Amino acid sequence: MKYYAYHLALSEQDMEGAEVALIPGDPERCEMIAEAVGSFRTLAFHREFKSVLATCDEGRVLVVSSGIGGPSLAIAVEELARLGIRYFIRVGTCGAIQDDIGIGDIVISEGAIRMDGTSDHYAPSLYPACANFEVVQVLSEACMELGYDFHVGITCTSATFYPGQERYDTYTGYVIRNLQGTFQEWKELGVLNYEMEVATLFTIARVFHLQAGAVCGVLVNRNQEEEIDPEEVNTVELKLARVAARSAKMILKSYVKGGQ
User: Fold this and answer.
1) 258 SS3 class
2) Active-site residue, from 86, 90, 167, 246
3) Which of 143, 195, 199, 208 is most exposed by smallest CB count within 10 Å?
4) Cβ neighbours of residue 76 closer than 8 Å, sequence gap 6 or more
C-alpha cells in the first residue's frame, strides 16, 4: 500500500519523484519560491501546509510551508521523508543580533541552539543540531553568485517569538528569570540570529540520515530596533526565493542526478 501523508494531504504519486524540498513558514511565500524555480502547480493546502511542485530543467522541487515553530515543521519533515524527500532547505526570516548584520542580509545556519523544544523528542539535549556541510556550501555559492551579502554561523532557535528571544515589547513587558540576559549572552558567544525552526529541522534530518540546510533573510537587527519595516519584507522574501531556487537547482544537478 502506497503512503499517503495525512497532514500534508499528499501521496507518493503527487511527488513525481521529487527529492528536494524548500520549506518556508508562510504559505503565501510558496508560489514566489516555486516561480523562482520554474513552472509550478499547487498540489494541496491543508491546515498550515501548502504544497507546490515546481519543475525546472534540473528536475522537480517541492515547496511546502510549515507554519510557525518546531512542532508543525516536525510533522512536515516526518511526512516528507516518507514521501521520498532527501534534501531539505528551510527558507525563513529572522532577527539578527550581531551589529555587523544588516537588514536584507542573508544568514546561512551551520548549526543551531536547541531552544526549540521539539527536537528534544528526537534526540537528547546534548545532541548537536548541525547542517549538512554540502548544503551550506551550496547556499553560500548561491548567495555569492547572486551578489547578496551573507553570513554563515550559529542560529538560536527559540520555541517562542517573545520571551524566548528576550523581547520586552510585549503585553506584560516581563521575561522569566532564566531567559533574562540570554540575548546578550548569545550575542557575546557569536550567535548570528533568532528564529523558530532551524534546530528542529537540523536535529531531525541528522537523526533520519537526511540532508538539511537553512537560509534566513534578516528583517530586523535587534540591536537597533524591534519594529519590522513592511517595505523591507517583500525585498527580503524575493532574495530568499532566488537563493533557495538557485540552491535547489545546484543540489539537483550535483547531488540528486549525480547519484550521491
Assistant:
1) coil
2) 167
3) 208
4) 7, 8, 23, 49, 64, 66
167 is catalytic: yes
Label residues 90-128 b or e (16+ Cβ within 10 Å = b).
bbbbbbbbbeebebebbbbbbbbbbbbbbbeebeeeeee
Is residue 21 within 8 A of residue 27, CB to CB? The reply is no
47 phi, psi to nearest 5 deg: 55, -130
- Among 29, 114, 206, 222, the active-site one is 222
Tell me the pLDDT tens digit for each residue of 182-208. 999 999 999 999 999 999 999 999 999
Superfamily covering domain 4-256: Nucleoside phosphorylase domain (3.40.50.1580)
222 is catalytic: yes
Q: Domain spans of the chain?
A: 4-256
Q: How far is CA 63 from the centre of its chain?
A: 11
Residue range 37-44: mean pLDDT, rounded: 98
**C-alpha cell of residue 39:** 513552472
Tens digits of residue pLDDT in 117-168: 999 999 999 999 999 999 999 999 999 999 999 999 999 999 999 999 999 9
Q: Which helix (H) or strand (E) holds 205?
A: helix 198-207
CB 201 within 8 A of CB 94: no
